[in-house]
Write a structure and sequence with these properties.
224 residues, alpha+beta, Nucleotidyltransferase, domain 5, 2 domains, 4-stranded mixed beta sheet, two-stranded antiparallel ribbon, globular, transferase, kinase, Ribulokinase, D-ribulokinase activity, ATPase_NBD
């Protein structure tokens, strides 16, 4: 049995995902693989005219399975059984609404073809109006915290995206328990730790601590 240990790195980009296997001590690259997201390639769930770019979680899962198997096959004997870790890199902010079990709503039959139940890709700019409202609100605070991140809250970021989806889709709003970023969901998925325990949740309409945004959107800490 080889004394060498290996790590698999997974990089999720806008169009495809890549896997690379490296020797854990030396950092030497052993093998790599890349595959495009099949539904994304078909242009599904996107509307460029509206700056809407959504990705189905099945694209992430199916591509992950392919590139890991392919990279391991290229690496040869003695590598798979000596993999000691995996790491993920994703685009962001790329959030998705989930149920109480931490399952993306688009993985459920009722939402399988609903773009609002899918991951909202970083370059989705459908939440321009909501971002403007957040910026307006921030200017009213004693401390405008946007000064610490460039002076403006972007429509590419999670709170604007979450508010936009909740306003647009009543069914998603009713079914959603919380949201999770792509970079957090992938490790939760492969370790079987999807069930939410302590999260800062988007909760509607049960108010515990108002954020100042319209339509009853609030922030609260969930304990379950």
């Amino acid at each position: 049995m080889s004394d060498k240990k290996y790590v698999i790195g997974l990089d999720y980009g806008s169009d495809s995902a890549r896997a690379v296997i490296v020797e854990a001590i030396s950092g030497e690259e052993v093998s790599s693989s890349v595959k495009h997201y099949p539904r994304w390639v078909e242009g599904k769930y996107c509307d460029p005219a509206k700056d809407q770019y959504r990705q189905h979680p099945l694209d992430y899962i199916e591509v992950m399975e392919f590139i890991i198997k392919d990279a391991l096959a290229q690496a040869g004997a003695g590598v798979a059984e000596n993999v000691v870790g995996m790491s993920f890199d994703t685009t962001g902010s790329t959030p998705v609404f989930v149920n109480e079990e931490g399952v993306p709503l688009s993985m459920l039959p009722a939402f399988a073809e609903n773009p609002n139940a899918m991951f909202v890709l970083w370059k989705d700019h459908t939440a321009v109006k909501e971002a403007a409202e957040i910026n307006e609100l921030a200017r009213q605070w004693k401390i405008d915290y946007t000064q610490y991140e460039g002076g403006i809250y972007s429509s590419e970021w999670v709170w604007a995206k979450a508010l936009h989806v909740l306003r647009q889709d009543e069914q998603v709003r009713k079914a959603a328990y919380s949201w999770i970023e792509h970079c957090d969901w992938m490790p939760a998925l492969i370790t079987g730790k999807q069930k939410l325990q302590r999260w800062f949740a988007v909760a509607v309409p049960q108010v515990t601590r108002p954020c100042g945004l319209k339509d009853g959107m609030v922030c609260r800490k969930r304990n379950s």
